[in-house]
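Recap from last week: sequence in, structure out.
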Amino acid sequence: MEENATKKTSIKEVFIVALVIIIAVVTLSAKFYFGNKIGRENALISELGSIRGAVRLYMAVNKTYPPDIKSLVMQKHNLFGKEEPYLTGVTVDKDNNPVDSWGHKFQYDAKRGWVSSGSRRYSKW
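Predicted structure tokens:
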């Protein structure tokens, strides 16, 4: 009888330990996922600000909106005595198109000079 009680205790202990491990893994996974998502969202806010600022600078210098966002990376201005690209500090793909935190190309409306994320969920930002 005593041996059977020991087995029940062991099974309960194993179950409790497994449950604690599962809860810990789920908690850490959620923390990583949401932490990573918040980091990417913050990066997107910064990227959009940089690109929109570069569009305004291009407009101030050239009196027209840039034909595409790639122009902001490729073309240079000489506003303060040294030649610099309109846009620096953003991630670009192999064709020099700026990409957002999720790796999607930014969308650009050349008529309005408006830039938005290429990620569907963030396209209205």
